[in-house]
Amino acid sequence: MKFRVERDVLADAVAWAARSLPVRPSVPVLAGLLVEATDQGLVLSTFDYETSARATLPAEVSDEGRALVSGRLLADICRSLPAKPVEMVLDGARVSLTCGSARFSLQTMPVEDYPSLPEMPAATGTVQSDVFAHAVAQAVTAAGRDDMLPVLTGVRIEIDGSSISLLATDRFRLSQRELGWDPRTPDESMAALVPAKVLGDTAKSLTAGSEVTIALAASGSGEGIIGFEGAAGGGIRRTTTRLLDGEFPKVRSLFPSEHLTVAKVDKAALIESVKRVSLVAERNTAVQLAFSEGVLTLDAGSGDEAQASESIEADVDGEALTTGFNPQFLLDGLTAIDESVVELAFTQASKPVVISGSPAEGDTDPGFRYLLMPRRLLS
């Protein structure tokens, strides 16, 4: 194996492929990055039996071949190289890397022990890469992080014709994001539960091209994997991951069909106020929100401890009410909203609030909605 490639192209592709390497691999070869030089160019791959990453990139290949080297070490080396072409040569059990006057010699791992990467399922459709990345970033806001509840660490992707719904919940909050896409089959209807971290990292990393291809083999019709593919660095990047097992809770019914109180508030003002007032809120205590005509008053702290209070303008339609929320969960939802004015819609003080951006006149796009459970207020 012998090839020559531009330093920036190689470093970017190696960093992308190595990002999904396991921290504690179950077997040593899973810490490796597979380098394959072919007549089509260079292919870099990683796989941990759950998630695979495969990057193709242009390179001047003199001799075809493949080698398995430490992925994290190669990423560190490539990041530190001078801005000159890189040459890699396989010589026996070692790979030599030359860039300008810098030279490295890397020990290889047994390539025959490396597992075969899963095949990409048939393409289900395409979506604008920047729109998809932003929608996923909003949806994962409410995903759980407790590995004892693996179903809640995923994002449920529901495909129905030309629309995609992204749903996530950790039991205390719920996010829903709707977006349009271009399906291969107009009447396609399917669903999948995708690990939130993998989905978030993948969507963010595939914005170089104009669109992302989504390929889904649902559990009932295949081995239960989903693939994402996009253009980058003059080549193609492809990720697959196994779907999560288990039944995602039926959360859509939690969004109420009507509201008794709706408040419109400037998002930036509310975020800053929550940040200030929550400075005195003890761990696991709520920030109180009291809505009355034209005013939202925020309070935190109680008894002999530090206390804070602040009022901001609010357009309140409906009955006055007082409730409270985990301040960080509230901030997570507010910062995920794009619009400058947010709507907080209540049925009653003890029930969840639905937070969304205040839509422009005539806009019926549901976009992003964030449902948050209230917290008990200290008396």
Automatic annotation (TrEMBL):
DNA polymerase III beta sliding clamp N-terminal domain location: 1-118
Pfam entry (one): DNA_pol3_beta_2
The DNA polymerase III beta sliding clamp central domain, residue ranges: 127-250
Gene3D superfamilies xrefs: DNA Polymerase III, subunit A, domain 2 (3.10.150.10)
Coarse class of the protein's main subcellular location: cytoplasm
Subcellular location: Cytoplasm
Keywords: Cytoplasm, DNA replication, DNA-binding, DNA-directed DNA polymerase, Nucleotidyltransferase, Transferase
Domain DNA polymerase III beta sliding clamp C-terminal: 252-361
A molecular function GO annotation: DNA-directed DNA polymerase activity
Record's function text: Confers DNA tethering and processivity to DNA polymerases and other proteins. Acts as a clamp, forming a ring around DNA (a reaction catalyzed by the clamp-loading complex) which diffuses in an ATP-independent manner freely and bidirectionally along dsDNA. Initially characterized for its ability to contact the catalytic subunit of DNA polymerase III (Pol III), a complex, multichain enzyme responsible for most of the replicative synthesis in bacteria; Pol III exhibits 3'-5' exonuclease proofreading activity.
Self-association state and partner proteins as the record states: Forms a ring-shaped head-to-tail homodimer around DNA.
Family: Belongs to the beta sliding clamp family.
Name this polypeptide is given: Beta sliding clamp
Origin species: Nocardioides cremeus
Gene: dnaN
